[in-house]
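Help wanted!
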Amino acid sequence: MAETKAAKVYVTRELPSAALDPLAEAATVRVWPEELPPPPEVLLAEAADADALLTLLTDRIDAAIMAAAPRLRVISNMAVGYDNIDVQEASRRGILVTNTPGILTKTTADFAFALLLAAARRVVEADRYTRQGRWKTWGPQILLGQDVYEATLGVVGLGGVGLEVAKRGRGFGMRVLYCDSTRRPKEERRYGLACVKLDQLLAESDFVSLHTPLTPETHHLIGERELALMKPTAVLVNTARGAIVDQRDLWRFLKDGRIAAAAIDVSEQEPIAPDDPLLGLDNIIITPHIASASVATRLGMARMAVDNLLTALRGQVPPQCVNREAIPRWRRALPR
Ligand code: GLV
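Answered by r_m:
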């Protein structure tokens, strides 16, 4: 790999050594050693002489960073989402942006379903109840939840994760509705899914699970109007991006019992502020953006991010390039 050894790579967090060691053998690598993300001024300074960045979804890679990084050729994001990167600006500058799709799909779907089950059957609340010494007897009316089997599941966004959640729902005998900008007739037939408009999905579903990327179109896709369409017994699950839901509206609807419960792995502000009113409610489960956090998947994501980065440094287009429009400019800047 001598051809990439002179390349400088900045990695914004410690990764498993099984992923980082091969990168360090192939290129000159600096790693931000702390638990919290590098502050913007550090990122700016480190990007200044970097040929490649390996970033996480917590690193905002904006036009200012790219302007300060004249050698930058590739930004490899260790996430399937890449709303933390100004992709348009990267394309304008001939910088490739890559992500880590596929590898985390089933792990993320498992977690979305875990949240759905936990919210439906009030698992987290029940654990708190037990630890607080409130378990006095078997009670016929204690901690009653919603049945999941044979209920209606609404999947918003039938990409990889959405489809896996739909399949899990079918495994529980659920009726599964989905909405997406693209219809998926093959999957509809194969898995018995029904494509409907968002409003119908919200009105008919007992469980609504969100799986769209965050874009200007999906920002606050679920707000007051949409929550008002949902059943008072419904449960909302969000493992996609926090800003797809208007969190203030969600708080009002949960507090007033206008929907039964929510389970969110993502928040408009991450980490969620310690004084966020959602934290004061019992009918919401809030986890710290861990849907893809299995040992095997996080290692797989790190390896894929490293492979993407090294492929680009070798002058080849990585398969997970999300801005193919950048390729002609990127090629022109390659050393001859
Ligand atoms: C996680 O949210 C990811 O985008 O990979």
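OP: Thanks! One thing I noticed: The mean pLDDT is 97.
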